[in-house]
Amino acid sequence: MNDLSALNSRFSLPGLLKFETGEGGLTRVAVTSGIADAHIYLHGAHVTHYQRKGYEPLLFMSGKSLFAEGKAIRGGIPLIFPWFGARAGDAAAPAHGFARTLPWDLRAAKQIGDSVAITLALEPSDATRRWFAQDFELIYTVSIGASLQLVLEVHNRSSTPFSFEEALHTYCNVGDVRQVSIEGLSGRTYIDKTAALARKTQAGPIRISSETDRVYLDTTETVAVSDPMKRQRIVVAKRGSSTTVIWNPWIDKAKGMADFGDDEWPRMLCIETANAADNAVQLQAGQSHAMTATLGVERE
Ligand code: TA6
Prior knowledge:
The protein is mainly beta and 300 residues long. The protein has helices at 3-11, 126-129, 250-255; strands at residues 17-21, 27-32, 36-41, 46-52, 79-80, 105-112, 115-122, 136-144, 148-156, 162-164, 166-173, 181-183, 189-192, 198-201, 212-216, 223-227, 232-239, 243-248, 268-275, 281-283, 288-299.
């Protein structure tokens, strides 16, 4: 049996969940429940689509995204581990770590109430040991229901402590980023990556009127994006995360990304649930850490 038929015979849920060939010939899980639909690629354990019945797709996907081994998918929810952004002191290291460009194993697929939960795992390999010497296990559970819940567990399976950064780098689908208002981060300190990493304090709601790349520190707050054009609010609640990253590339950065359309930047806004910079996680031998993001959409 090929991968698809083996996966379907072992894990499919008739009428709810099946495995299929997605973009670029990559294998994806397709969930079609009465409440919501979703796609999750085994490549990078990457959620590329979530749509609650009666609402528009919650996630933005670039029309120019690559779907290829070793390459990041542009849009949806890239899974970032074990470092965020460029790796300090290692120019050869892939941006945002290696988890999003490696194949993950499927561990479980089950119906829990009116949700469907898929569990995927990443364990050490030659590809990870090249960058990260310690033994770890990532277990990622995606629950698709009236909201989209993501739980990323990091297990230290080695005999020594290690520290890591992580992020669920969510690309939200918005009507026009110039019209949205982002609430929940007022009063927080952020690192401004468009201003030589200057540390600033957020005053009131965030509006996007130029390239925006901000790492908000020491915040466990829920963030809400009010989108007047779509007349809805995207709500990102979280647990086990002390960092929230807000990113829109705007005009010039959009032009500089080959896997992103020049005209796509107004329709996306990244609200990233993370532990990064000052909030990197130190994990003792044998310890585990869980980070949860719950994404929902409400009518305005
Ligand atoms: O989270 C914001 C950010 O760190 C930006 O600086 C930008 O690099 C973005 O991530 C996308 O990174 P990527 O490696 O996916 O192109």
